[in-house]
Automatic annotation (TrEMBL):
UniProt domain Major facilitator superfamily (MFS) profile: residue ranges: 26-513
Protein's recorded name: DHA2 family efflux MFS transporter permease subunit
Keywords, alphabetical: Cell membrane, Membrane, Transmembrane, Transmembrane helix, Transport
PANTHER family the record matches: MAJOR FACILITATOR SUPERFAMILY MULTIDRUG TRANSPORTER MFSC
Organism this protein belongs to: Paraburkholderia sejongensis
Stored CDD domains: MFS_LmrB_MDR_like
Gene3D superfamilies: MFS general substrate transporter like domains, Multidrug resistance protein D
Primary location group: membrane
Domain of life: Bacteria
Source lineage: Bacteria, Pseudomonadati, Pseudomonadota, Betaproteobacteria, Burkholderiales
Locations listed in the record: Cell membrane
Entry's family note: Belongs to the major facilitator superfamily. EmrB family.
SUPFAM superfamilies in UniProt: MFS general substrate transporter (SSF103473)
Transmembrane segments: 64-83, 90-111, 117-139, 151-172, 178-200, 212-231, 243-262, 283-306, 312-332, 344-363, 375-397, 490-508
Length: 520
């Protein structure tokens, strides 16, 4: 393939790593850009009812504020490698951040629901390269011995942003107006783009003239968008009892099947699936995907349980969930810095064991668990978060060559994001169905022949309740217990899944002393 970038953008040798203040400033700029993008996947969730009411649409329609962004982003992420080869990594990252910032401002200024959805689609499309490229650019900019630290700092933002998103979104919605959840991106995006432009001039990667794989692009857009829409809308439409969901599933399966065949046989594929020939990359992606599937399932179910069953407000549920990010904030850079000294498989396996212990701990909760006991396992879970993401990302990319790193990072981040959506869909569906099952089982025991029921109704009568009020109170008690039992079941299953992953990690074969270095 013919190189077309100007000589200044194609240095003959790898530029020297940045040093001192320039490196620190670039780290902050890239981290903020990453944090901003990942934050937008969750910050709007709690604001959907407010946005829907403000723009005069039903709450069910308001969920498209989330779905439109996630669908567009899911399409764009796997295109990162191909776009980076065409445009250059630095140029593509800077352009993506600027367009994302403009789209964010446009979302805030939207005067009707249709324009908001259009701007959210644009925001998702241009966001795709931001997370994977921030990872590769940061690693290239650090000295070889400190690239583990770079990965740790990067992971810190990716891990914590989805956790703090609902808390920040709820605070902004309650105390300001909903457009501010988009306006806050503007100063962050400008700062990130300026840092990247000023500090990375002359450090552009090689570009190549590649034809557009039109067939692969159409299949990718069709398959991924239908799959993401199915995951986003499935629960609300009763999954495969809905003709629309069935149609989406069939289109997704057919399009993705043809995409796999086409991309594996095309000379210049838009998605480089040959990366999966690398053992560590393939296994690493599988383990990260299932790990995130289980982890994000718990991230969704935990606050739902707190608000639905325990009577927590959205703000208090956010505070109870947030401690998971505290230890991860401190430990991720430390683990990254000492990556070359650690046995990566042992660290990752330890992370899954911590997740399993925390899940089992959560499965023992009852309806009278105090707030202090709720947040303690979340705090400890942060140890597992730090020990999971950095080592597994290092294992996944440990034998990927320099020129394919952007493609590998884009693909791994795509599967990580998609697995989070799948985990959310599976966990919420299981939780609600299991609650219905336990409700039916418990309701059978609530009858006039049960001594416990008789004693409880007598106590209610003593408190002045009669007739329908007694029935409503009994149903509320049964419902709360059913939700609690379903929550316990979910965390027991999560515990078992994490134990399996703790063993599966040992199938990978990272080289001794592997770190996230480039150019193997």
């Amino acid at each position: 393939m013919e190189a077309t970038a100007p000589a200044a953008a194609q240095p003959a040798a790898e530029p020297a790593p940045l040093q001192g203040g320039a490196l620190a400033l670039l780290t902050v700029g890239l981290a903020l850009g990453t944090f901003m993008e990942v934050l937008d996947t969750s910050i709007a969730n709690v604001a959907v009812p407010t946005i829907s009411g403000s723009l005069g649409v039903a709450a069910s329609q308001g969920t498209w504020v989330i779905s439109s962004y996630s669908v567009a982003s899911a399409i764009a992420v796997p295109l990162t490698g191909w776009l980076a080869r065409r445009v250059g990594e630095v140029r593509l990252f800077t352009l993506s951040v600027l367009l994302f910032t403009l789209a964010s401002a446009a979302c805030g200024f939207a005067q009707n629901f249709e324009s908001l959805i259009a701007f959210r689609l644009l925001q998702g499309l241009v966001s795709g390269p931001m997370v994977p490229l921030s990872q590769t650019i940061l690693m290239r900019s650090y000295p070889l011995a400190k690239r583990g630290l770079a990965l740790g700092l990067w992971a810190m933002t990716v891990i914590c942003a989805p956790i703090f998103g609902p808390v920040l979104g709820g605070y902004i919605t309650d105390n300001f107006t909903w457009p501010w959840i988009f306006y806050i991106n503007v100063p962050i995006g400008v700062f990130s783009a300026v840092c990247a432009y000023l500090l990375l001039r002359g450090r552009e990667t090689k570009t190549t003239r590649q034809r557009i794989d039109a067939v692969g692009l159409v299949l990718l857009v069709t398959g991924v968008s239908c799959l993401q829409m199915m995951l986003d809308l499935g629960k609300d439409r009763d999954w495969f009892n809905s003709t629309f969901i069935v149609a989406l599933a069939v289109i997704a399966v057919v399009a993705i099947a043809f995409l796999l065949v086409w991309e594996l046989t095309d000379d210049e594929p838009i998605v480089d699936l040959s990366l999966f020939k690398d053992r560590n990359f393939a296994l690493g992606v599988v383990i990260i995907s299932f790990g995130f599937m289980a982890f994000f399932g718990s991230v969704v179910i935990f606050p739902l349980w707190l608000q639905t069953v325990m009577g927590y407000t959205a703000g208090l549920a956010g505070l109870a969930t947030a401690p998971v990010g505290l230890l991860a904030l401190f430990l991720s850079p430390m683990i990254g810095k000492n990556m070359h000294r650690l046995n990566l498989r042992m660290v990752a396996s330890f992370a899954f064991i911590v997740f399993a212990i925390v899940s089992f701990w959560n499965s023992t909760f009852t309806l009278d668990v105090p707030f202090g006991h709720v947040i303690l396992p979340r705090l400890i879970q942060g140890i597992g978060v730090a020990c999971f993401f950095v080592p597994m990302t290092t294992i996944t990319l440990s034998s990927v060559s320099d020129e394919r790193l952007a493609s590998a990072s884009g693909l791994s981040n795509f599967f990580r994001t998609l697995s989070g959506a799948i985990g959310t869909a599976i966990s919420t569906t299981f939780w609600e169905n299991d609650t219905i099952y336990h409700h039916a089982m418990l309701a059978d025991t609530v009858n006039v022949y049960s001594p416990n029921t008789t004693a409880y109704t007598s106590a209610l009568a003593g408190a002045g309740l009669t007739g329908d009020s007694v029935t409503a109170q009994l149903n509320q008690v049964v419902t709360s217990q059913a939700y609690m039992m379903a929550t316990n079941d979910f965390f027991r299953i999560s515990c078992a899944a994490f134990l399996v992953l703790a063993v599966l990690v040992w199938v990978t074969k990272p080289r001794k002393g592997a770190g996230p270095s480039l150019g193997h």
